[in-house]
Amino acid sequence: MTIRRRTLLGAAATAVALPRFAIGQAPMDITTIRSTAKSWIWMAEDYALNGGFFAQAGVKVSANASNRGTNMTALVGPSVDVEWGDPGEAMNAKKENLQFRTIGQTVGKFGSHVVVKKEVLDKLGITEASPWESKIAALKGLRMGNTGPGGAPDNMLRWLSVKGGMDPNKDVRLVSIQGGGPGMVAALGQGVIDGFCLSSPTSDIAVGKFGCAYLFQMVTNPPPEFQNYTYIICNTAVKTLNERREALVRYVTGLALALRSIKNEPEKFKAFAVPFLELDPAIVEQAFKGHASMYYADPRLTEAQFKTNLSFINTANVSSGLDPMPASLTFASMYEPSIAEEAMKRL
Prior knowledge:
Strand order of the largest sheet: 2-1-3-10-4
Helix content: 40-55%
Distance between the termini: 32 Å
Oligomer: single chain
CATH architecture of the largest domain: 3-Layer(aba) Sandwich
Strand content: 15-25%
Radius of gyration: 20 Å
Structural class: alpha/beta
Order of helices and strands: HEHHEEHEEHHEHEHEHEEHHHHHHH
């Protein structure tokens, strides 16, 4: 599914001078893929596209959504240059010897939230302000929706179960739901699930309109381990890295420009995000307050964040009956930091 895009016009978008390297150069094409069309977790790319930041960097981007939980295998074919997802998905693909490298990051909080029907939580006496141990215990016996095995929501529900001393294969019923946000809300309304783990605006819609409450709002009130957590990264095939390096640098430069604007011009970002996500006026302030602070200031990658991601995915994998990541999986074997480093030099 190709994402419908709006062009964000106005003095703020057009008055910014082009980076020197892009002046007089024809734009280069980049095709990307992610799981869903519209979500806060993908907004850095959407803002870069609609706000003119990719154009400033000299790259023309075609962004696509698959409605699948994982998309790493799309990098095998010739039609996708960049895949967006979470580090756990990428690490599992690396374990299977998929030839790719991670070239950038945008989100520094675990942006998929855990919501549960409020009537269920009320019976247990649980609110979002309850101790995290009690909140995890509330998951026991519930039917919790996720985007499928190996996806970040599934991994988070598994991690929480293990952290709470439960077996996610027995004590919590993990239900794979297709169709992105609309599919998750439909399953909730039909009584197929008691709650789910997914990003906003779906989580905010469930709270605002479908009788749910936040168990874990992972941006503003996460477990301690997720105060600083790389959640969304972009990956490219090694072949693409070798053959289209300049296009990738331009692409990440556009992301860096967008991230800088999100940090320094929050009202401009809000003016884009609210209509782009088609947010109900009733949830606008809650949604923006809960997500505007989730983005990194720039796309550069660090080894410390890699280690945090590795610990998380190993916990989730072991609970799924999978082996831990091999010792050969290192920051150097998976990440290519030079693309983002070069992009930052071009700002």
